[in-house]
Each structure stands twice: as C-alpha cells, then as structure tokens.
C-alpha cells in the first residue's frame, strides 16, 4: 500500500454531522428533528440510479450458493423449508431492490459493505480475491452520496490494499480495527463520519435485539 496516511487514522469519537465532502451539490442536507446528525436527502430517481448501479455490478461476485450445510433440503413444495423461512427473515439485498428504495426514502443512509463474496468473487487463493474495476467505480460512485464503510474479517490494511478507495472507511478484523476516510485531511470531519456510522450501527443493533 502506498498511502501511509490512509493507514494511520485514529479511531472513534461521538456524533455530530456528515462531512460536506460526502454530500455533493446534487444532494441536500438538513438537520433531522430527532437527531444531532445531519440527514442526506436524495431524490428517488437519484437513489434508484445509485443503488441500482451498485447492485448491478455486485450480482456476479455475490455468492448465490444455497447454504446446504446449514439447512436441510426443501422438501415438499407446500411446506416452508428452513431455508425459505430463513430467506424470509434475511432476504437478499439483490432481490430486494424495491424494498431498499422504499425504506430508504427520507432516511439517513450509510452503507456498510462486506468484502469477500460481496465486492470480490470467492476464489481459492485469498491473495487473489481482487475486485473488478467496475466494482471499484460503483463503490466510489455510491460513496459520493452515502457515507460508506467496508467491514471485513481480513486485516484492514489488506482490505485497503484490495479496494484502494480513500473515500471509504474500513473496519478490519471483524470491526476491531478501524480506519477512517483519508479523502479529507480534516481530522474533525473524518471523526464526524464515524460518529454518524456508529449512531446508526447502534440503532441497528438495538433494533435486532
Ligand atoms: O468478512 P469478509 O470480508 O467476508 O472476510 C471473510 C474471510 O474472507 C476471506 O476468506 C474467504 O474468501 C477467500 C477468497 O475468496 C476464500 O478463499 C475463502 O475460502 C473464504 O473463506 C479471507 O481469507 C478471510 O481471512 C476472511 O476472514
């Protein structure tokens, strides 16, 4: 990795606002009445365009193998199999485009992406799990509209080496090692991004309990 600055960013502080460099002029920002964080409002047309672009390029590298290790075979068609029941509670984002768009309207949006099997195809040699140029461009594009982070089981240095987008935040070792965006040199702004991420992540964790 050539960018040493990108490796050495600090971790965490508490919420304030989404940095202006992640809000292009086509997107408006307002204070949300229920939160201290700014909210990015994006038109439905733009939201469809951005999400569609990312999901479209993600489909080929996404794992579509049925998890036979964890679930029995489907059984008679009139029965709800464990696999189908699991899918009902954990639907694939790739098959839920309309729901994503509908539920994203007027909300604060932050994007957390996995690396292996999501941005890169699963391959036998972990050193060769490269992401495509198209995928890199799609992720870079989406990060212009939403704060975007990659959370991986790999070391964050390794993930950054594969992705090489300073616009993103990276959480390696399953979230134990965090690197803020180095696209903006302002420390306070990069801290703001993670404040925003963690306020959303905490909400998500609370809701799933
Ligand atoms: O959290 P992730 O970003 O999904 O990382 C999970 C593990 O990914 C890597 O292993 C997986 O991908 C390899 C390359 O396609 C594949 O060879 C291996 O079978 C998969 O398990 C990585 O090597 C692990 O360190 C990560 O924990």
Automatic annotation (TrEMBL):
Q: Which domain of life is it from?
A: Eukaryota
Share an example GO biological-process annotation for this protein: trehalose biosynthetic process
What cofactors does this protein use? Answer: a divalent metal cation
Hydrolase: present as a keyword of the record? yes
A single MF term (Gene Ontology): trehalose-phosphatase activity
Q: Which UniProt keywords apply?
A: Hydrolase
What name has this protein been given in UniProt? Trehalose 6-phosphate phosphatase
Instruction: Give the species.
Output: Triticum turgidum subsp. durum (Durum wheat)
> Taxonomic lineage of this organism?
Eukaryota, Viridiplantae, Streptophyta, Embryophyta, Tracheophyta
């Amino acid at each position: 990795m050539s960018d040493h600055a990108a490796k050495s960013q600090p971790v965490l502080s508490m919420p304030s606002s989404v940095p202006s460099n992640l809000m292009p002029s086509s997107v408006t920002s307002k204070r949300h009445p229920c939160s201290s964080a700014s909210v990015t409002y994006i038109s439905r047309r733009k939201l469809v365009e951005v999400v569609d672009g990312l999901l479209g390029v993600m489909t080929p590298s996404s794992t579509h193998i049925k998890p036979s290790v964890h679930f029995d075979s489907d059984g008679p068609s009139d029965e709800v199999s464990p696999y189908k029941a699991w899918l009902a509670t954990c639907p694939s984002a790739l098959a839920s485009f309309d729901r994503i768009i509908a539920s994203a309207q007027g909300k604060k949006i932050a994007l957390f992406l996995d690396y292996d099997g999501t941005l890169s195809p699963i391959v036998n040699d972990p050193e060769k799990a490269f992401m495509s140029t198209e995928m890199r461009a799609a992720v870079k594009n989406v990060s212009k509209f939403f704060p975007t982070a990659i959370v991986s089981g790999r070391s964050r240095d390794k993930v950054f080496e594969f992705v090489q987008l300073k616009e993103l935040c990276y959480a390696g070792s399953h979230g134990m090692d965090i690197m803020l965006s180095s696209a903006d040199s302002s420390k306070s702004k990069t801290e703001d991004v993670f404040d925003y991420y963690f306020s959303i992540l905490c909400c998500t964790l609370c809701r799933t309990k």
